[in-house]
Amino acid sequence: MTYFRVQLHRSAIGLNKKTNEILRTLGLRKRGSVVYHNITAPTAGKILAVKELVRVTLVDQKLTKQEHNATMKSNPGYYVIKEENH
């Protein structure tokens, strides 16, 4: 089954009440939050209403919170190699 992966990209501060309600019904509260929805006409309509604020991709499976956090974790840029004491 295919899902919409919806990420709130821009803040809704200062926007009208209707836009904030649409974001709330989609389950998006904080900037950067991600939700997964089944592909349905009502969901697509809500996404179109806030298309300037969200990023949408089609995915084959939902990720758990732990899997999503693992994908967002950045590379530290270095690795510590422990040496044995001689």
Strand order of the largest sheet: 2-1-3
Mean pLDDT over all positions: 91
For the sheet with most strands, the description reads: 3 strands, antiparallel
Structural category is: alpha+beta
Described by its quaternary structure, the protein is single chain
Distance between the termini: 57 Å
Radius of gyration (Å): 18 Å
Q: List how many beta strands DSSP finds.
A: 3
Question: What does this protein structure show overall?
Answer:
The mean pLDDT is 91. The longest helix has 10 residues. It is built from three helices and three strands, in the order E-H-E-H-E-H. The chain is 31% helix and 20% strand. Helix 1 crosses helix 2. A three-stranded antiparallel β-sheet has the order 2-1-3, with no helix packed on it. With 86 residues, it is an alpha+beta fold. It is elongated.
Secondary structure layout plus pairing:
Elements lengths: L2 E6 L8 H10 L7 E5 L2 H9 L4 E6 L5 H8 L14
Antiparallel strand pairs: 1-2, 1-3
Helix pairs in contact: 1-2
In short:
This protein has helices spanning 17-26, 41-49, 65-72, and strands at residues 3-8, 34-38, 54-59. The chain is of the alpha+beta class and 86 residues long.
